[in-house]
C-alpha cells in the first residue's frame, strides 16, 4: 500500500496516533478475541480506498475535471474521518455521553447533540493547528488552507440533506466517497466490512474492488414527493397533476382553464392513447363515460371554477429538479450491492448486537458514569476536564482512549471503588445475566410471532418478562420501564 507523503505526515501526528489505542469494535474484543484491530488501521484503509475510487473515476471520466487537489482532499478526509472516536468507539458517543447529565449552558446544549463526527472535525482542526510543519507541507503540495480544509471537513461531516454543498458544489459526487449520506454506500463501509469480517471470522461476499471498477458519475434526477420522477415533467405539483397541462391549479376536483380533475392521468385513466377502465380512449366510449366532458349516470359533473389569485400562485410548492452528480453503478451490480447490505446485517446480528457484547457495553457505560467526575484530564491552558467534558477540549480529548478502562481498573482511589468493581466483574466474566426484557401485551399467535421476529427472539421465549439478576444469580424483583444498575430496559436490551 503506497500513501502520499502528506498522508504519512498526518499519520505521524499525536492526534492520529491516538487511534492506535481505540478498539474498532469496542467491547466486541472482550467477546471475540480475534477482533483486536483498532481505529488506526481502519482509518488508513479508508484513506487508501478513497484514493482508489476517486482515481478510478478520474481515469474513466476525464470530463469530470478531477484534479490532484481533489484527490488529495478526498484521501485526507478518508484518513481523518474517525479522529473523533472516544474510548470503545461507538460506546462513548452512543451510550455514555447521552446518559451523562448535561450541565447548564452552552456545554450542556452541545452534549445533547454531540456525535463523534463533530469531534472528528474539531480534532482535524486541532491536528492542523498543532503541527505547523504540516501546514507548510500542505501548501507545498498545492492545498489552499482555507478552501480545501473546509472541503475536507465537509466530507468528514456532510451537511444535512436539505443544505447545499458549499466547497465543491459542481463536484457533488466527491461527497459520496467517504461518508455517503445519500445511499450509505461509501469506502468507510468497504473497509470495515472487510476488516471486521476478517477478524470476526464472518464471511463477506461483497467485492468492493468490483464496485470501484464499475462506478460511474451520472447526473441523476432525484425522486421527490410521492415517488414521482422529476425528469418526467418539467415542473410538477400535487398528486399526479402536470403543470405543463394546466396554467394554475389547486385543490382536488377544481376545474382550471377548462380542464377537469377527471381529465388527469391516473390509474384507469387515459394514457398514451390507451383506453382506461371505463373511460374513453381515442374517441371511444367507455362504460358510460366520455373522455372529453365526462358524464356520470347521465349527469355532467358540477365543477366550480375558482379564481386563482397571483399570491396563490406564488405559494405553489413547485418541485425543483436536482441535477447534481452522483456516483452510480451498473444494474448488473445489484447482487453485489445486495451482498453489501446483507454483510452489514450479518455483522450487526452476529457481532455488533451480540447479547454478551451489549451486556459488557452496558457495564462499561455504567462504570464510566460512576467514574466520570473523578477522572481528571489536563487540557489546554492547564484546565482540568472530566471524562464527559473532555469532548469540549481537543487537547484533553487527545489523551482519552481505551486506556481509561485500565486506569479505573487499576486505581486505588476510594471514589472510583464502584466503577472499579464493575470493571473487575467484566474482566472476571461475571457479567449481568439479564439486562431486561419486554412482556408484550399481544395475545394472538400471529402477533407474538411478529413481535418475536421484530426483536430477534426466534429461538427464545415468546413472552419474555422483565427480570434482573445479580452476578450471583439471585433473582431480583421484576420491574417494568424503570432503571436498575444504571441500565434502562429497552427493546435493544432483550436477551
TrEMBL record:
PROSITE patterns: HD (PS51831). Pfam families: HD. InterPro entries: dGTPase-like, HD/PDEase_dom, HD_domain. Residues 39-193 form the HD domain. Residues 259-312 have a biased composition (Acidic residues). Residues 223-312 are annotated as: Disordered. GO terms for molecular function: dGTPase activity. GO terms for biological process: defense response to virus; dGTP catabolic process; regulation of innate immune response. Transmembrane segments: none annotated. Residues 223-258 have a biased composition (Basic and acidic residues). GO terms for cellular component: nucleus. Belongs to the SAMHD1 family. This is Deoxynucleoside triphosphate triphosphohydrolase SAMHD1. It comes from Dissostichus eleginoides (Patagonian toothfish).
Amino acid at each position: 500500500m503506497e500513501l502520499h507523503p502528506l498522508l504519512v505526515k498526518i499519520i505521524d501526528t499525536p492526534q492520529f496516533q491516538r487511534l492506535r489505542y481505540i478498539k474498532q469494535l469496542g467491547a466486541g474484543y472482550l467477546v471475540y478475541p480475534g477482533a483486536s484491530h483498532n481505529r488506526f488501521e481502519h482509518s488508513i484503509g479508508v484513506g487508501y480506498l478513497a484514493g482508489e475510487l476517486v482515481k478510478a473515476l478520474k481515469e474513466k471520466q476525464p470530463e469530470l475535471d478531477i484534479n490532484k487537489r481533489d484527490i488529495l482532499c478526498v484521501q485526507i478526509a478518508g484518513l481523518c474521518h474517525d479522529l473523533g472516536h472516544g474510548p470503545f468507539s461507538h460506546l462513548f458517543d452512543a451510550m455514555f455521553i447521552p446518559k451523562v447529565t448535561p450541565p447548564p449552558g452552552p456545554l450542556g446544549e452541545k452534549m445533547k447533540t454531540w456525535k463523534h463526527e463533530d469531534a472528528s472535525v474539531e480534532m482535524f482542526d486541532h491536528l492542523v493547528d498543532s503541527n505547523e510543519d504540516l501546514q507548510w507541507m500542505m501548501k507545498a503540495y498545492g492545498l489552499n488552507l482555507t478552501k480545501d480544509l473546509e472541503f475536507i471537513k465537509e466530507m468528514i461531516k456532510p451537511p444535512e440533506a436539505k443544505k447545499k454543498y458549499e466547497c465543491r458544489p459542481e463536484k457533488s459526487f466527491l461527497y459520496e466517497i467517504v461518508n455517503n449520506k445519500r445511499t450509505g454506500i461509501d469506502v468507510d463501509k468497504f473497509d470495515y466490512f472487510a476488516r471486521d469480517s476478517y477478524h470476526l471470522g464472518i464471511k463477506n461476499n461483497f467485492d468492493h474492488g468490483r464496485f470501484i471498477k464499475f462506478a460511474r458519475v451520472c447526473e441523476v434526477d432525484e425522486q421527490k414527493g410521492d415517488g414521482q420522477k422529476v425528469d418526467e415533467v418539467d415542473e410538477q405539483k400535487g398528486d399526479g397533476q402536470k403543470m405543463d397541462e394546466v396554467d394554475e391549479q389547486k385543490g382536488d376536483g377544481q376545474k382550471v382553464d377548462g380542464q377537469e380533475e377527471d381529465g388527469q392521468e391516473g390509474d384507469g385513466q387515459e394514457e398514451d392513447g390507451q383506453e382506461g377502465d371505463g373511460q374513453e380512449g381515442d374517441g371511444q366510449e367507455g362504460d358510460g363515460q366520455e373522455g372529453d366532458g365526462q358524464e356520470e349516470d347521465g349527469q355532467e359533473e358540477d365543477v366550480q371554477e375558482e379564481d386563482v389569485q397571483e399570491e396563490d400562485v406564488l405559494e405553489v410548492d413547485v418541485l425543483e429538479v436536482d441535477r447534481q452528480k452522483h456516483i452510480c453503478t451498473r444494474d448488473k451490480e445489484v447482487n453485489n450491492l445486495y451482498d453489501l447490505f446483507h454483510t452489514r446485517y450479518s455483522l450487526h446480528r452476529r457481532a455488533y448486537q451480540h447479547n454478551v457484547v451489549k451486556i459488557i457495553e452496558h457495564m462499561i457505560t455504567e462504570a464510566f458514569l460512576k467514574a466520570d467526575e473523578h477522572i481528571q484530564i489536563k487540557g489546554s491552558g492547564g484546565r482540568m476536564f472530566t471524562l464527559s467534558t473532555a469532548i469540549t477540549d481537543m487537547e484533553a480529548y487527545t489523551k482519552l482512549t481505551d486506556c481509561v478502562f485500565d486506569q479505573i481498573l487499576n486505581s486505588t482511589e476510594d471514589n472510583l471503588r464502584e466503577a472499579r468493581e464493575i470493571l473487575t466483574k467484566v474482566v472476571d466474566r461475571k457479567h449481568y445475566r439479564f439486562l431486561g426484557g419486554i412482556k408484550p401485551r399481544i395475545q394472538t399467535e400471529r402477533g407474538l410471532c411478529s413481535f418475536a421476529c421484530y426483536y430477534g427472539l426466534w429461538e427464545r421465549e415468546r413472552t419474555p418478562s422483565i427480570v434482573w439478576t445479580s452476578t450471583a444469580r439471585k433473582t431480583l424483583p421484576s420491574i417494568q420501564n424503570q432503571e436498575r444498575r444504571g441500565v434502562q430496559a429497552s427493546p435493544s436490551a432483550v436477551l
